[in-house]
TrEMBL record:
It comes from Haladaptatus pallidirubidus. This is Blue (type 1) copper domain-containing protein. Keywords: Copper, Metal-binding. InterPro entries: BlueCu_1 (IPR000923), Cupredoxin (IPR008972), TAT_signal (IPR006311). Residues 42-63 have a biased composition (Basic and acidic residues). Residues 27-86 are annotated as: Disordered. GO terms for molecular function: copper ion binding; electron transfer activity. The keyword Metal-binding applies. Residues 86-159 form the Blue (type 1) copper domain. The lineage of its organism: Archaea, Methanobacteriati, Methanobacteriota, Stenosarchaea group, Halobacteria.
């Protein structure tokens, strides 16, 4: 008879299944749906200054984050306004950069007409910290707000068609 230990069919299937699962999971380490923006943000931090020009970041919008409301900083059309309406063009790329002005936790959500988040930034609770989120505007966008202060930090998104 043969003195070598035999592998049962069950053991062979377990080993094969584990190997397949590990292989499948190895391909899943890329971005999850909905997190593309934060990966784009990380990518832009790793590029040289010449690579991350305005064509890659899109049009820039700057806001300040305070519990009492978003503060418009740029472009000029929103500067100094509380919870300014953001005028976006579907298909255009934008980068929203916001700065925490009060040390409270904030996170920017841009939502559709059903109040479902379409774009999310990272959160920040350290005063002075800035967060940037790059996205392409779509016809779905309706409003933006802070996840933690949705009543006082909420503004409209106005969609503008190409002229």
């Amino acid at each position: 008879m043969n003195d070598q230990p035999r592998t049962s069919r069950r053991t062979a299937l377990k080993v094969t299944g584990s190997a397949l699962a590990a292989t499948a999971l190895a391909g899943c380490t890329s971005s999850l749906p909905g997190n593309e923006d934060s990966n784009q943000e990380s990518d832009s931090k790793n590029k040289s200054k010449s690579e991350s020009d305005s064509s890659q970041k899109g049009k820039e919008i700057r806001l300040g984050a305070k519990q009492s409301g978003w503060e418009g900083r740029a472009p000029k059309s929103i500067k100094g306004k509380k919870n300014p309406a953001l005028t976006l063009q579907p298909g255009q790329k934008y980068t929203i950069t916001w700065e925490n002005l009060d040390g409270k936790e904030h996170e920017l959500y841009i939502v559709n007409g059903n109040d479902k988040p379409v774009v999310k930034s990272e959160d920040a609770e350290e005063k002075g910290k800035t967060v940037s989120t790059t996205f392409t505007a779509s016809k779905k966008l309706a409003q933006y707000y802070c996840e933690y202060h949705p009543q006082s930090m909420r503004g409209d998104v106005n969609l503008q068609q190409k002229q």
